[in-house]
Amino acid sequence: QLQLVESGGGLVQVGGSLRLSCVASGSDSSINAMGWHHRAPGKQRESVAFVTSDGSTNYADSVKGRFTISMDNAKNTVYLQMNSLKPEDTGVYSCYAHLYGSWRAYWGQGTQVTVSS
Q1: Is 48 left (phi over 0), alpha (psi -120 to 50) or beta?
Q2: How does strand 57-59 pair with strand 45-52?
Q3: Could you read off the pLDDT of 54-92 as tens digits, one per residue?
Q4: Distance CA 19, CA 11 (A)
Q5: Nearest to 3 by CA among 21, 20, 23
Q6: Distance separating alpha carbons of residues 46 and 88, to the nearest angstrom
Q7: Which of the four, 4, 42, 67, 71, has the lowest number of CB atoms within 10 Å?
């Protein structure tokens, strides 16, 4: 089993920045990819960004140029640097991870981000 714990959420003003972290633990298997989903109030969860172990990244159009995802393979940690935050960025950000050779995704509990206007 793989456990994921997010941190770094909070309250920030429009235009501000936050850095989310997600630490994975509990498995001897290597992590193939990690990423973040965002669930805005009253909406479905949507993909924000992901990064693979070889460094490839992908971003939703809504966050391109503002967010940066990165992975520290040695620490089994993924980060999401969030800049120029907008009110629509408000919501719960959940971290997920995939292990090599597995179809399933492991999810963290999520961390709340609130962007005030």
Answers
A1: alpha
A2: antiparallel
A3: 999 999 999 999 999 999 988 899 999 999 999 999 999
A4: 12
A5: 23
A6: 13
A7: 42
Round to whole Å and give the CA distance between 18 and 64. Answer: 15
Sign of CA dihedral 4, 61, 45, 15: positive
Q: Write the CB contacts of 45 (distance below 8 Å, at least 6 apart in sequence).
A: 37, 38, 39, 94
In angstroms, the CA 73 to CA 54 distance is 9
Specify which residues 17 forms β-bridges with.
none
pLDDT band at residue 48 using 50, 70 and 90 as cut-offs: very high
Count of beta carbons in the 10 Å neighbourhood of residue 109 = 11
DSSP notation for 41-67 = TTS-EEEEEEEETTS-EEE-TTTTTTE
- Tell me how far apart the alpha carbons of residues 99 and 29 are, in angstroms, rounded to a whole number: 6
